[in-house]
């Protein structure tokens, strides 16, 4: 059964305007739902029981294009908190993982980056926001209280940009006050956007990363894209970054090169026929993802590292999902295992805090949700 909601006057200044908003009856009373409706009063909206009645596209490329047009507010049926998918390779050590923990708030992204891996991953023809915030806070709080001593790096941004929809969802205004009660957490809003207005009047207390009003910052140069003459663009870009962001404000940085599942290639060619991105020389890596050849990746990382070192020697810099071999060639040393990568990153954060907090590998963390979840 579908129950329409009467639209009010339109709102301006929002980052994205879907053609339709579907609301799962389970989250009608959510503050996230209320915020979305307040900012999209002129968009057709309906309350539904079950998935949105959106026709299934004929192929993955069409599905992804369709998914950028419709918003679905629903409840997270699984866990909000879990290890980053990159952690699945931590046992083989063929690719070293940083031990990042993620919070799944949104599935799919309103941005449409040519290289985005979500194009071959998303299986729903709509953008999904998980609005059952009571479960979110219950689960996140249980996780952090279960691990009271270690410094825990956790954040959103794995399956969507962390802030690109924040003016609509209001997640930052909910999360930042909640996180103040936990001394052991560093939460990262990983974003390409400049949508930080909702953070400016919130006191982060050193627990959230976004540089504005005293927030910490992390830089992720990822994915690095190769093309003839790439150095002429990236070298001044690094200079521009550090002309804008004082190096002392940076807690840690990462680098990663273009990598994606093989299925993404045909999808990108179908959705972005003028793009030359997929015509680069790419080969399957140890994790099955398509990557540039090792010598080329090493060269790009080494040059980026040299440009970054012009501005700061103490970067907490690490490579995202790369092997010990690449680490050794770029930095002259390599972590013995993924736990060492975690120690390296956490150590950089602790130095920025100037506090004697216990550091343990995040790979040792476990999550035991309450039985009611």
Outline the fold blueprint.
Blueprint: E1 3-4, E2 20-24, H1 31-39, E3 45-48, H2 60-67, E4 70-74, E5 81-83, E6 101-103, E7 106-107, E8 127-130, H3 133-146, E9 152-156, H4 166-169, H5 171-179, E10 185-189, E11 208-209, E12 217-224, H6 230-244, E13 250-257, E14 259-260, H7 264-271, E15 282-284, E16 290-292, H8 294-309, E17 317-319, H9 324-331, H10 338-353
Parallel strand pairs: 2-3, 2-4, 4-8, 6-9, 9-10, 10-11, 12-13, 13-17
Antiparallel strand pairs: 1-3, 5-6, 7-8, 14-16, 15-16
Helix pairs in contact: 2-7, 6-8, 8-9
Annotated CATH topology: pyruvate-formate lyase- activating enzyme
N-C termini distance:
27 Å
**Cα shape:** globular
Uncertain runs are 1-12, 89-93, 354-373
* Helix/strand order: EEHEHEEEEEHEHHEEEHEEHEEHEHH
Total beta-strand segments? 17
Tally of separate domains? 1
Q: Architecture in CATH?
A: Alpha-Beta Horseshoe
Largest sheet strand order = 1-3-2-4-8-7
Helicity level: 25-40%
Largest sheet: 6 strands, mixed
SS class:
alpha/beta
Helix count equals 10
Q: What Rg do the Cα atoms give? A: 21 Å
Write a concise synopsis of the structure shown.
The protein contains ten helices and 17 strands. With 373 residues, the chain is of the alpha/beta class.
What are the defining features of this structure?
373 residues, pyruvate-formate lyase- activating enzyme, six-stranded mixed β-sheet, 29% helix
